[in-house]
Amino acid sequence: MRLSAPIFRLKRHARLLSRSTGNPLHQALDHVARDEGFRSWSHLAAAAREGAGPGARVLNGLVPGDLVLLGARPGQGKTLLALEMVAEAAVAGRQAFFFTLDYTERDVGERMMAPGVAQAIASGRIVIDTSDEICADHVVDRLHDAPHGTLAVIDYLQLLDQRRQTPELGRQVDVLKTFARTAGTIIVTISQIDRAFDAQEQRLPTVADVRLPNPIDLKLFTWTCFLHDGEIRLEAVA
């Protein structure tokens, strides 16, 4: 069954309903789910996960204001997962941005083969930014007028302070965190994982395996998403 709106919008509607009626949030969520034709919110969420690809499943776990660190070793599909999230957001009618310091616009377009993506790029719902000026301030400036719930992916975290004139990486992450929270944007930063990560000792990387040539307070992120050998784990940052 197709939902009338993306899950994040349904959640927002439930929160507003809870405030206006004074009922608990779980009751408002169930009410919204019944309007969508499901028995309860848990039934709706399970149905959404069952038919969704990896990008949609990760995206459905996020809400506006989230700052996400998406990390994996090379060749494990982190960029592909991020592009799937961009495609899912755009096809659902949301604005999506892909900022990359690593790929050309043609490279990105060729990797985004999901139905409806070409139309979304042509209409401007997907914006691919390959500027050499990409940094936190550049991202915030491009997203300044973007609607609530916009998804932005940055490829990738460790390149944001490669130019001498940009602030240190920790300050840039703080800027992104503040903007995501105040603007209601979801920002996903693709991250490198240190070569010392050993898949024979642990199935998936952790925050301890994130490559940090310059210090960052990883608690600024609301979620981490690590993947390796086809397994994906999305976890809230404590």
Write the SSE topology:
Blueprint: H1 7-21, H2 25-35, H3 41-50, H4 54-60, E1 67-71, H5 78-91, E2 96-100, H6 105-111, H7 117-123, E3 126-129, H8 136-143, E4 151-155, H9 169-183, E5 186-191, E6 223-228, E7 231-236
Parallel strand pairs: 1-5, 1-6, 2-3, 2-4, 4-5
Antiparallel strand pairs: 6-7
Pfam families: DnaB_C
Domain SF4 helicase: 58-114, 121-211
InterPro entries: DNA_helicase_DnaB-like_C, P-loop_NTPase
Short description:
One of its GO terms (cellular component) is cytosol. InterPro entries: DNA_helicase_DnaB-like_C, P-loop_NTPase. The protein has 238 residues and is α/β, with parallel strands linked by helices.
**Multimerization state:** single chain
- Approximate helicity band: 25-40%
Shape-level CATH architecture of the largest domain: 3-Layer(aba) Sandwich
**Succession of helices and strands:** HHHHEHEHHEHEHEEE
Number of helices: 9
| Spatial sequence of strands, sheet with the most strands | 3-2-4-5-1-6-7
- CATH names the topology of the largest domain as Rossmann fold
What does the largest sheet look like?
Answer: 7 strands, mixed
Q: How far from one another are the termini? A: 34 Å
In CATH, what is the class of the largest domain? Alpha Beta
Total strand segments: 7
Q: Which stretches of 5+ consecutive residues score pLDDT under 50?
A: none
